[in-house]
Design brief:
About 80% of the residues lie in helices and about 0% in strands.
């Protein structure tokens, strides 16, 4: 190899390093933006659910609450588009009822998607919910993996083999 060839090789390597560094900056930035958007959406849904739960559904006003949610859902859908149908609003309310601490919601929202939360909030057993929530966070399960773990009864199998409280707290 002569000097010219060595210089060109060094130049190509420098370019490739520069390109890789720039690509990494862009990828990391996009990931941060996606995380922020997801976190904000989850917090919005929690706040909507909390507000409706606190102001409308408390007490013995089930029929009134149903009517208000239907009306809110209709108007929010007109104003903001999909994602605010009655079923979605009820999921938001359930989420706010189950997870009352905003700090927990803020932490979870940075690690899991709304789809994870909807799936986990369908469970009635608090220990089971907490188990899947923690495992999905720790193991970074996709929504599909989380659903598969739930369907395979991982919690129940773990409970048979060891105390799930210990697993959750690790």
């Amino acid at each position: 190899m002569n000097r010219k060839e060595i210089s060109r090789t060094d130049s190509e390597q420098s370019y490739q390093q520069l390109f890789n560094d720039i690509a990494k900056i862009i990828s990391e930035g996009k990931h941060r933006v996606a995380t922020e958007v997801n976190s904000t959406v989850i917090l919005i849904y929690w706040l909507v659910g909390k507000r409706i739960n606190d102001e409308i559904l408390q007490g013995d006003r089930a029929n009134y609450g149903e009517q208000i949610i239907a009306q809110i859902s209709q108007e929010l859908t007109i104003k903001f588009g999909r994602g605010y149908n009655k079923a979605s609003i009820f999921r938001m309310v359930r989420f706010a009822k189950i997870y009352t601490n905003q700090k927990i919601v803020a932490t979870v929202s940075r690690q899991l998607s709304w789809s994870h939360i909807v799936l986990i909030c369908q469970m009635d057993n608090e220990l089971q919910r907490d188990f899947y929530l923690e495992m999905a966070k720790i193991e970074r399960w996709s929504v599909r993996e989380t659903r598969d773990k739930i369907n395979s009864m991982l919690f129940e199998r773990t409970a048979i083999s060891k105390k799930p409280e210990k697993v959750i707290k690790t």
